[in-house]
Automatic annotation (TrEMBL):
Residues 10-116 form the FAD-binding FR-type domain. Its cofactor is FAD. It comes from Nocardia rhizosphaerae. The keyword Flavoprotein applies. Keywords: 2Fe-2S, FAD, Flavoprotein, Iron, Iron-sulfur, Metal-binding, Oxidoreductase. Residues 264-351 form the 2Fe-2S ferredoxin-type domain. This is 2Fe-2S iron-sulfur cluster-binding protein. Gene3D superfamilies: 3.10.20.30, Nucleotide-binding domain of ferredoxin-NADP reductase (FNR) module (3.40.50.80), Translation factors (2.40.30.10). Pfam families: FAD_binding_6, Fer2, NAD_binding_1. InterPro entries: 2Fe-2S_ferredoxin-like_sf, 2Fe-2S_ferredoxin-type, 2Fe2S_fd_BS, Beta-grasp_dom_sf, Cbr1-like_FAD-bd_dom, FAD-bd_FR_type, Flavoprot_Pyr_Nucl_cyt_Rdtase, FNR_nucleotide-bd. The keyword Membrane does not apply. PANTHER family: 1,2-PHENYLACETYL-COA EPOXIDASE, SUBUNIT E, NADH OXIDOREDUCTASE HCR.
Length: 351
């Protein structure tokens, strides 16, 4: 049995596994119990994810992000869904080892892949296990919103369709609001941007969300661009393996007198409040905000998860790693707080 005696950092919590559900031959869902004293910290928005600390004999542990497939409005307990990936240590360890009653250390829910309004008409794309955050959004919108929802769900075959029965039930419950379009490789072949554009042409006014392998999401981006869907109305979720340890507590920032004298100033809007901070040139935005005790959203601090995405309203930054942001994102002022360092003397940034 897997047990965790104490959390490895002040941000993480230890949760007991309530159930493990076999979704397909290579995909399991892990359902967590949430004690009363942790319910506030474990509140989540549709489309967010959990970061799990997975034991490793070689490195002590690895950190992996898994989307919540549950809805905070329709499911009693939070649930992440894990699909085995070839050579993927985290996914294979979880599928092979985790059972009901085990304990796992997790970071509180994070991520910005979530609609601003559940009343919007939504156009959702998922491929393979990319359905995980998408179905969270879908269930939440149907339960709490008033708009229509269209899901395009691509899989290699019918046996690979995760949540097939649940989707059938939802179509039966919301026939006027939910449309599910399955794309199965043996029947339709591999999708192209033109094919996808033809499928979703009637829904170009909808807010679009996508999750899946990069080639699939590239096709979706191209399809929506060909239909003149504004880039600001398309949202993508991307996960990469994390190399560092997001469970470790943040180390205090060490700043020399020389660095302090040359620091930029930044006005940061967070949760409706504006904070004016000194921003040394060698420090990231997340580092200085944590150092000031601000509850900045972040998870990996490696530029791989997008939790710390924010918008530059004034000024300019440079980033070490911004690969998960599209050129259009950067053009529109989006940055990653954990990678951003100031270039100009004064900046305004909004979370």
């Amino acid at each position: 049995m897997t047990t965790v005696e104490v959390p490895h950092g002040s941000r993480s919590v230890v949760l007991r596994v309530a159930a493990v559900i076999a979704e397909t031959t290579d995909t399991n869902s892990v359902v967590f119990e949430v004690p009363a004293d942790l319910r506030e910290r474990m509140q989540y928005a549709p489309g967010q994810f959990l970061t799990l600390r997975i034991p490793s004999e070689r490195t002590g542990s690895v950190a992996r992000c898994y989307s919540l497939a549950s809805s905070p409005f329709t499911d009693d307990l939070p649930k992440v869904t894990v699909k085995r990936t070839e050579g993927g240590y985290g996914s294979n360890w979880l599928c092979d080892n985790i059972r009901a009653g085990d304990e796992l250390e997790v970071l509180p829910p994070s991520g910005v892949f979530t609609p601003k309004s559940l009343d919007e008409d939504l156009l959702l794309f998922g491929a393979g296990s990319g359905i995980t955050p998408v179905i969270s959004i879908l269930k939440s919108a149907l339960s709490q919103g008033a708009g229509k929802v269209v899901l395009v769900y691509a899989n290699r075959d019918a046996e690979s369709v995760i949540f097939a029965a649940e989707l059938r039930d939802l179509v039966g419950k919301y026939p006027q609001r939910l449309t599910v379009i399955h794309w199965l490789e043996p029947l339709q072949g591999l999708p192209t941007a033109d094919m996808l554009a033809g499928l979703v042409a009637p829904y170009t006014s909808y807010e679009a969300f996508m999750c899946g392998p990069k080639p699939f999401m590239d096709l979706v981006h191209d399809a929506l661009a060909s239909l003149d869907v504004p880039r600001a109305r398309t949202h993508a979720e991307v996960f990469n393996s994390l190399a560092g340890d997001p469970f470790a507590d943040h180390a205090p920032v060490q700043i020399s007198d020389e660095e302090a004298a040359a620091a930029a100033t930044v006005e940061v809007e967070l949760d409706g409040q504006v904070h004016e901070l000194s921003w040394p040139r060698k420090q990231t935005l997340v580092d200085i905000m944590l150092d000031k005790g601000l509850d900045v959203p972040y998870s990996c601090q490696e530029g791989e998860c997008g939790s710390c995405a924010c918008t530059v309203l004034e000024g300019k930054v440079e980033m070490d790693n911004a690969e998960i942001l599209d050129p259009e994102d950067i053009e529109n002022g989006y940055i990653l707080g954990c990678q951003a360092r100031p270039v100009t003397d004064h900046l305004k940034i909004q979370f």
